């Protein structure tokens, strides 16, 4: 009897095994990710004590925040709409900066951007961007900022002061100028449901309400309410009060009025000398009121005029101090800046991101103060070309807002948010003139300034997300069975 030796199909077995491994990995990839994160936390915790004693306590603090960072990455990989929410959370809670002035909000924004781009490439083989008028100027803005950096380096005056790491600092300023509009586009793309926008706004209002309460009550645990953070908090509250209170209880309305009262007390009474603190807030209130009720706006104007006359001596004393300390200084500073030859020599493309600081430190070491105007700051960095692109970007944002003006709003929350964003844009333009920041300057605020400005871009991105949110709502109405 002849026996036949069976053939060994080793390649086929290996193929089956590889398929089984891939299936197992796809089935349990998130479990594996959590296991890796858990092991990283355990191993990393052991090194914190050594970091604190041997190197720099701030590095130990950064290491202590590692679990939260890893958890955030786990969330962002699966639910990218949490990205803008985490950016607002981190920028509001962390008023400190890591070594070299790096802010956690900037790192998180860069991480969210990378995850967003990677997910786009994996899902669609390309990056899908929103359809909006502002997309073109945003891309042009990024391009001119990058070009101006190399232009500033290549065309720099040979006698400029140079110190180690200056190129890295100017590149860091470039990252701020680039990531600001990027986070706006990111928000517009991932906040594509009403519930995500609602969570974004409510979380921000809870944080800032605690922040202003802690400041007024002098609590030891403070959070970041600098820059235009306060203006957005007041605008979002006020917009919901005017447009989203029809079906709300009396206690809901009184609660919002009480919170607004605390904000107004802090800025219109206790902080009245800080013009750039309360004037943008007033612009926000006026614009939102204009779109809700012209009669209310007229009544508000009459009340403001009466208040000025009644408290005229008190107001005069404070405004004269503000003008003497800041207003007159601004005008003199602007005249001084535009009279400099290096400004005229770099009129087209500027001195590059952060570049003009070296010129002032070289030629006027005793007069290298701030420009006191974000507009002039932008002009000095990216020149006339970049300034025109910036104006184009602002005009495109206004146009994107206008395209929704005829919308018949069925959702009062979205309506309140919509009118708040145009008030916020108007407030930003006023604040920039007064020296507050829309695009922070690294030599003035360090990279930490990004935490005080990123809110502007996130909430404007929420405005750009409204068309997609409305489209999905309409789809659910027309095809309820598919949702």
Give me a quick take on this structure:
With 483 residues, the protein is mainly alpha-helical. It has one domain (133-482). It is built from 19 helices and no strands.
Keywords:
19 helices, 0% strand, 483 residues, 74% helix, mainly alpha, disordered N terminus, single chain, globular
Describe this protein's structure.
By secondary structure, the protein is mostly helical. The chain has one domain. The protein has 19 helices and no strands. Helix 1 (10-54) crosses helix 2. The model is unreliable at 1-12 (pLDDT under 50).
Number of helices: 19
Anisotropy-based shape? globular
Structural class, please?
Answer: mainly alpha
Total discrete domains: 1
Order of helices and strands: HHHHHHHHHHHHHHHHHHH
Give the fraction of residues assigned to helices. Answer: over 70%
Strand content: under 5%
Question: Using DSSP, what is the number of strands?
Answer: 0
Give the distance, in angstroms, between the N- and C-terminal Cα atoms.
68 Å
Main β-sheet, in a few words? none
List the helices and strands and how they pair.
Layout lengths: L9 H45 L2 H8 L1 H13 L3 H12 L10 H21 L10 H20 L11 H25 L3 H23 L12 H15 L6 H21 L4 H18 L1 H17 L1 H27 L2 H5 L10 H8 L10 H29 L9 H23 L7 H4 L8 H25 L5
């Amino acid at each position: 009897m002849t026996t036949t030796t069976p053939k060994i199909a080793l390649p086929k077995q290996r193929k089956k095994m590889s398929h089984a491994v891939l299936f197992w990995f796809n089935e349990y990839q998130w479990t594996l990710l959590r296991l890796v994160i858990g092991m990283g936390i355990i191993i990393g915790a052991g090194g914190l004590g050594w970091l604190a004693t041997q190197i720099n306590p701030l590095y130990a603090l950064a290491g202590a925040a590692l679990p939260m960072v890893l958890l955030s990455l786990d969330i962002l990989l699966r639910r990218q709409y949490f990205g803008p929410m985490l950016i607002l959370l981190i920028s509001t809670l962390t008023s400190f900066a890591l070594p070299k002035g790096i802010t956690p909000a900037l790192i998180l924004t860069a991480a969210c951007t990378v995850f967003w781009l990677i997910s786009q490439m994996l899902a669609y083989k390309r990056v899908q961007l929103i359809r909006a008028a502002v997309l073109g100027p945003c891309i042009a803005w990024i391009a001119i900022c990058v070009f101006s950096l190399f232009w500033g380096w290549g065309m720099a005056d040979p006698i400029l002061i140079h110190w180690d790491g200056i190129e890295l600092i100017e590149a860091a300023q470039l990252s701020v100028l680039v990531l600001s509009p990027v986070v706006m586009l990111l928000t517009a793309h991932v906040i594509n449901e009403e519930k995500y926008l609602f969570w974004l706004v409510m979380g921000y209002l809870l944080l800032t309400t605690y922040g202003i309460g802690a400041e007024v009550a002098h609590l030891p645990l403070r959070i970041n309410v600098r820059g235009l953070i306060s203006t957005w908090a007041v605008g979002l509250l006020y917009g919901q009060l005017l447009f989203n209170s029809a079906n709300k209880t009396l206690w809901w309305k009184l609660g919002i009025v009480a919170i607004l009262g605390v904000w107004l007390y802090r800025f219109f009474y206790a902080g009245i000398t800080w013009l750039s603190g309360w004037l943008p807030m007033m612009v926000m209130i006026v614009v939102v009121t204009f779109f809700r009720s012209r009669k209310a706006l007229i009544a508000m104007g009459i009340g403001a005029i009466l208040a000025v006359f009644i408290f005229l001596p008190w107001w005069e004393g404070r405004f004269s101090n503000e003008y003497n300390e800041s207003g007159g200084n601004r005008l003199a500073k602007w005249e001084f800046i535009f009279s400099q030859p290096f400004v005229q020599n770099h009129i087209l493309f500027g001195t590059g991101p952060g570049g003009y600081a070296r010129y002032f430190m070289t030629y006027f070491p005793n007069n290298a103060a701030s420009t006191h105007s974000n507009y002039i700051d932008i002009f000095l960095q990216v020149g006339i070309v970049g300034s025109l692109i910036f104006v184009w970007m602002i005009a495109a944002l206004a146009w994107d807002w206008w395209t929704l003006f005829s919308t018949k709003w069925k959702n009062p929350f979205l309506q309140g948010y919509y009118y708040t964003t145009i008030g916020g844009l108007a407030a930003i333009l006023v604040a920039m003139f007064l020296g507050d920041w829309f695009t922070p300057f690294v030599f003035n605020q360090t990279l930490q300034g990004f935490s005080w400005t990123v809110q502007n871009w996130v909430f404007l991105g929420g405005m750009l997300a409204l068309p997609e949110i409305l489209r999905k709502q309409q789809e659910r109405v027309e095809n309820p069975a598919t949702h």
